[in-house]
Design goal:
The protein is mostly beta strands. The protein is built from 1 helix and 11 strands, in the order αβββββββββββ. Strands 6-7-9-10-11 form a 5-stranded mixed beta barrel. Strands 1-2 form a two-stranded antiparallel sheet. Strand 6 and strand 7 form a beta hairpin. It is elongated and about 55 Å long.
């Protein structure tokens, strides 16, 4: 009796596993490393069981890989992000604007940042660390604009 119950349980488990939902999702065609910018040759659509993956190639093209992605595994939103326009240790322009006053100086970025990211920067004149937001030119805005 116990053997037949175990067999029935195994058959039900196999049936449930075999019917797992699959969907069209974006997968890498080869291993992608952090910092890689995704191109059309790097991804394809495949059947996979992913709940929160991307369903169209255009959703990931031009984005930067955030963690190692392996061939054939579904890509998820946390795996990619906007490409960095400022690299760590890069010399950037710091801009402080308020009203009609604008002050610019050089700084060294203490991290990587994409457009709109908050970034810490070492002011090379005062040696103070300040925080600001990266704009599309790679300038870090530390005051109101």
């Amino acid at each position: 009796m116990i053997a037949s119950v175990q067999l029935l349980f195994i058959l039900i488990l196999c049936s449930v596993t075999a019917n797992a939902a699959t969907a069209q999702t974006v997968v890498p065609t080869h291993t992608l490393q952090p910092g890689d910018i995704i191109s059309i040759d790097d991804v394809q659509i495949a059947e996979a069981s992913a709940r929160d993956g991307f369903s169209e190639l255009v959703q990931v093209l031009g984005f930067e890989v955030q963690r190692v992605l392996y061939r054939g595994r579904p890509m998820r939103p946390g795996d990619v992000g906007a490409p960095a326009v400022v690299e760590r240790n890069e010399i950037v322009t710091l801009v402080y604007r308020i009203g009609g006053l604008s002050i610019e100086t050089a700084g060294r970025s203490l991290g990587r940042g994409a457009i709109g990211d908050k970034l810490k920067v070492l002011n090379l004149s005062s040696r103070n660390t300040v925080s600001g937001h990266v704009n599309e030119l790679g300038t870090v805005i530390v005051g109101r604009e």
